Amino acid sequence: MKKTAVVTGASSGIGEATARRLALEGFDVVAAARRRDRLDALAAEVPGVRPVTLDVTSAESVAELAASLDRCDVLVNNAGGAIGLEPVATGDAADWQRMYDINVLGSLRVTQALLPKLTASGDGVLVMLTSVAGLVSYEGGGGYNAAKHAQSSMTEVLRLELCGEPVRVVEIAPGMVHTEEFSLTRFRGDAERATKVYEGVPGPLSADDVADAIAWCVTRPWNVNIDRLVIRPRAQAAQHKIHRVTS
Ligand code: 8X3
């Protein structure tokens, strides 16, 4: 019997790379996201990937996802993101609310809906994609830091509460990852600002690098729980310590 992995936010970036990678690892992959056209293209290209339309901010949509699954062995709560880089003094509460809704409550909704199936699998693995932004705060990070800290804390609580159940709880906290959309979303479509984030950085992480780490975590033996994996590019020693090459 093949194992089933559900990946949220699978239409691009880390989610898409993880869906591809877990399919290669032999999982039946349920690729879930809002943008169905992208998921269909992914499923047409990668055998073993099934597309499911999902909006993690909608309880109904999450319930439909759960109802469409026979089983769930691995859940990768990847849907998330940052909106804005304004200081706390001028940040928009609506942006903060949206970030909380996607990163924290979105992960909560999907986790609650799929936990019975993860437990029933006998060796479930729940992966939370947080961020180094959930461990270290930085200027302008406000709403994103708050949301990622909350998601990271929720992950710790869950691991404590599930102790004794056949479910592992893994937190992946990436640093600088150059994906198609993360910075573009943060800067509300300003491509020039988004590009500058990675300018001169030799080897920011790719979505594939993070997918590789996720695949490693979920393929460890049943008794091995990788609590938290912090993954950064070599050029980023800390949040504020980034090596850039100027030409
Ligand atoms: C993204 C990493 O450093 O932009 O989750 O907050 S950072």
UniProtKB/TrEMBL annotation:
It comes from Planomonospora corallina. One of its GO terms (molecular function) is oxidoreductase activity. Keywords: Oxidoreductase. It comes from the Bacteria. SUPFAM superfamilies: NAD(P)-binding Rossmann-fold domains. Pfam families: adh_short. InterPro entries: NAD(P)-bd_dom_sf, SDR_fam. This is SDR family oxidoreductase. Belongs to the short-chain dehydrogenases/reductases (SDR) family. Its EC number is 1.-.-.-.
